């Protein structure tokens, strides 16, 4: 599980291995392309709305993009977001987990972040993943998957 040793920037801009942020509790790790873009804002708002449900189950929700901690802070303030947002400036974690690759937009092909979500158990193991997700309604789908995984299907 080398991905746990990849260093990311936490919300305070401190470099830490992913392990320090996820070890010891269930974690939803969702990758999104860019702060303040329509789909990414929708996804972050939906995770924020459902955050109390995740927290009741002992689950933390962390969003990951290449944006800087300062950009994340502005994004959170502008939209009232409560989820943690961490930075993977060189896309090292994105690449390690398959959340980076070729994309097409208006006929142009380029490499970039692929909207993806991973559920990690308290040991940091990936127990569920979905690559190329649709932003709208995704947070609710992830909540249902978490309930199945930890055995609380209420």
TrEMBL record:
Assigned keywords, A-Z: Antioxidant, Disulfide bond, Oxidoreductase, Peroxidase, Redox-active center
Gene3D superfamilies per the UniProt record, alphabetical: Glutaredoxin
Gene Ontology CC: cytoplasm
Pfam families registered for this protein in UniProt: AhpC-TSA
Keyword Oxidoreductase among UniProt keywords: yes
GO biological process, one term: cellular response to oxidative stress
Location of the Thioredoxin domain: 1-151
Catalysis performed (reactions): a hydroperoxide + [thioredoxin]-dithiol = an alcohol + [thioredoxin]-disulfide + H2O
Taxonomy, superkingdom: Archaea
EC numbers: 1.11.1.24
The protein's enzyme class: oxidoreductase
Any GO MF annotation of the entry: thioredoxin peroxidase activity
UniProt-listed InterPro entries: AhpC/TSA, Peroxiredoxin_BCP/PrxQ, Thioredoxin-like_sf, Thioredoxin_domain
Subunit structure: Monomer.
Membership in a protein family: Belongs to the peroxiredoxin family. BCP/PrxQ subfamily.
Protein name: thioredoxin-dependent peroxiredoxin
Source organism phylogeny: Archaea, Methanobacteriati, Methanobacteriota, Thermococci, Thermococcales
């Amino acid at each position: 599980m080398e991905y746990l040793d990849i260093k990311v920037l936490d919300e305070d801009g401190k470099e830490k291995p992913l392990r320090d942020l996820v070890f010891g509790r269930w974690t939803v790790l969702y990758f999104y392309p860019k702060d303040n873009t329509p789909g990414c804002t929708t996804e972050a708002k939906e995770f924020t709305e459902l955050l109390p449900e995740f927290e009741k189950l002992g689950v933390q929700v962390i969003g990951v993009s290449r944006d800087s901690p300062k950009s994340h802070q502005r994004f959170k303030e502008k939209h009232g977001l409560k989820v943690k947002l961490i930075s993977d400036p060189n896309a090292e974690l994105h690449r390690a987990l398959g959340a980076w690759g070729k994309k097409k937009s208006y006929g142009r092909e380029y490499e970039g972040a692929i909207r993806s979500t991973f559920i990690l158990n308290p040991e940091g193991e990936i127990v569920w993943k979905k690559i190329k997700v649709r932003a709208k309604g995704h947070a609710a789908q992830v909540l249902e998957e978490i309930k199945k995984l930890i055995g609380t299907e209420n």
